[in-house]
Amino acid sequence: MTRKRVIVGMLLLVAVTSVFYSLAFAEGGAWLERKHGNGKKAMLANNGNVMYSVYVGSTADATVRHAAQELVDYLTQVAGAPFGLTISDGTPEGPALIVGKHPVTDALVPELSNGQLGDDGFVIRSSGSRIVIAGSGSRGTMNGVNYFLDRYVGVKWFSPTYTFVPDKRKLQVSVDSDLQVPRFQYREMFVNDGNDEQFRAHNLLNGKSHYRAQVASVPGLDSWSDYVPTGVHNFHALVTDAVYHSGGQLLAMNEDVRRIAAESLIGKIAQRKAGGLDPSYGFSQQDTTWNPDPQSRSFAEAHGGSLAAPIIDMIGDAANRVRAQIPEARIGTLAYQFSYPAPTGLTLPDNVVVTLAPIDKDHGQSIDSAGNERYGQQIAKWAAISDHLVVWDYLTNFNGGGYLQPYPNLYAMADTIKHIAQYPAVKGYFGQQTGGARGPVGVGFDELRTWVGARLLWNPDEDVNDLIAEFVNGYYGAAAPYIGEYIELIHQSLADSGATLTISTPIASPYLSFETMRQADGLFGQAEAAVSGDPAALNRVQRMRTGADLIILHRRAEFAHEADERNIVWSLDVANRLQRFKSLTQNMPSFRIDNGDIQQLYQLLELERIAPPVPDIVQNMPAEDWIDVQDIDFRLLSGATAVYDGKASDHAAARLSGSSTAWGIQLNNTSLPRDGRWKLYAYARVDPGSGSPGAGAFRFGLYPTVSAPAGVTFGEVSDGEYRAVEIPWTYKYNPELSVQYLWFQPSASGAIQNLYVDRIVAVREKPPAAYNPGFETAAPDGPYPDGWQAAGGVWDSGTAHGGSRSIRLDPEPANAFHVVYTAVSKWIPVVPGQAYKVKGWIKNGSMTGNVSLGVRQINAANGSIGYAWHPGAQPDSDWTPYEVSFMAAPTARFVSIYFKSDQQTDGPAWLDDVSIEEVP
């Protein structure tokens, strides 16, 4: 994971910073230039003398003229000499830069008319004293000019607010023949830094989706790609009659649904055409789950079990109907959550564009990594269904610390782009870095990720290490070595911690550890000192620092406590840090999707917490076996808020009014581990109301896997103190569930004034194991095996399958309950719905009767649910393995292993070496 080349390069820069930068800027930013072969050298200007004119044809449209004017303006700035623009169809007099199609380009650039450049490609070609920069269309020519200024001249549009313009009084370029066609037809980095269309054009991005599509382009820039049809999550908007809505989506196999959908799409597309827009529209599932109708489910089962099958069959049908009326029409749809797995035995018409949106993958790893296998393998399967695919990549945190939280996925993004580039069917990429128009501008990795992503979407073969170094050097100036180290630090911490990046990665995620954040803070201190005399560069450094400041402010009590414990000096400088953070984020409307108002964030940060003590239920437990999730990582909805609470473990808790009827306090599964099984405990209390002891105080559930919620009565919590409420279901991450969360809600009784939830503690549940399975250990208070009870039975030290002891049942004709079984204190926890197998070795000395191994299932009230038994051991047999299988009932909490012999046996029977295991 470590990108040694980047960090080594950055470290080398530390030693030579002052010399390096004085030379770099004296040479006009030579450190930023890319070489383009050994073409003919052309002197564009020399010490105030302009050698080349810029020509554009008289029929050039606004986009081409705007590009030509930009070429003139930037060359003038770079050379410090006035370049001129000539609008003429005549043969240029003297050396010329010819922009776009022109009467002289037909012979020089035949590629302009043979279709190989597409909408975005271009040619930069030298012929004699002429340099042609032209595409087949306006956008291609615009791209060519921007590419020329960037790669050949050295102008770098690092962000909408910062452009590096080199100072080259001797402006010379080397041009041969450079034909450029982007690998991806559609290229969008969705971040508010990218809302500036000119900035996106400069960096060869062409995507304009979501709310951006509603914003009119400025003159000269109205040339964005319409490859991805507008409109998502609109099944119900296009088929409005609720009689056709089913399980959250539509009756996908219903003929009337398909007809209505096609009619609605025809109307929408005709309306767009009338307004001069492209003839396309989206037809996509609602942003929720689907409990399909029997006909849709049956169709899915017949096509690989994927719920995408009925969806894309419906969309393909509708697309064909639309095309019959509007031949050029195109339809867009999503493969998202339940519809992400590709179906079998189906294909889509070529007028349908499918956007693959693997929202649940680990966004800190490439889509082709081992951890993302179930997501990455779907790319090839979809490529067999459709030739028009777009990948929607999630590059930000929607909850937790939101868009501001350090989100180290630069390399994951790069590797994902490189991986999907191998599939010709993948025509586009949408990199989401914010939830919408209310997100931040210019903080954290946003600008770096946008700039690097734009280049890789044009050419995935570029080296991500080189790109990161180029941006960091150019954008952060003398602070570059320290920013480079921070980038590597946070990415390496993610890799070392094994943490997962989701759309709701918690603030307390292990990659944001004490040591990582302490080192990050030190690097930013050095970075700020390096650019202290450059206010603009200092501001850029501090905007990168906002993410580290956010984590340190949130977790300052925890970090201060650890520093004291380890005798480490670390000044958290809370007052100045909070002031700096506020000054850099005060104009940000929202920092995350849910409860994202920036003022709410400030209130959270101003809460004075303490370092929470280790929960009582995990005292002396290894750290890797439990997780403490505090209120800062809850989702707070419908009036729930974080407040000071001196009774809470860290003096803060989530509070929800007792009059609320909403699931207002939630813990998303993305804040919980993806490995193993976990028992959850909620530390909760109430402000008592007028409830009676038996009245409900609050309820909780695990959506969507638990249909019947559990609850706590007023009598249990009426003292107003925190108690650990055991959640009576075992949590296990299920990748098939796109949405899963634990929720809390006041009961409808009105028994309480307020509900408080302080923390959720997750305790790793170990694989089931029988205690003292070989009967070797004696009980502390008697000569019988520890952890076992017997209604008859002898602890035998003379016969054993393994070790030196076993348990024996001798014939007792009068004993109807002649058994040995697991003692109450050693009952074995089980997971409802999980299959198990109990095994044991039996030696049977009886010729008659029944000797059997069995298991009893037990509920939360310690009552029996039922028994399962092996049919019986072979009479007069030596040690033989036997097993009994069972499925844990929905209400099962424990099991007890049983060994019995009935009243008809005529000889002894022994049991040894029992075990229990899960069945996959």
Automatic annotation (TrEMBL):
Gene3D superfamilies membership: Chitobiase/beta-hexosaminidase domain 2-like, Galactose-binding domain-like
GO biological process: carbohydrate metabolic process
InterPro entries xref list: CenC_carb-bd, DUF4838, Galactose-bd-like_sf, Hex-like_dom2
GO molecular-function terms, A-Z: hydrolase activity, acting on glycosyl bonds
Entry keyword annotation includes Plastid: no
Pfam families according to UniProt: CBM_4_9, DUF4838
Keywords in alphabetical order: Hydrolase
Signal peptide: none
Domain CBM-cenC, first and last residues per copy: 770-902
Name of the protein described by the UniProt record: DUF4838 domain-containing protein
UniProt source species: Paenibacillus hemerocallicola
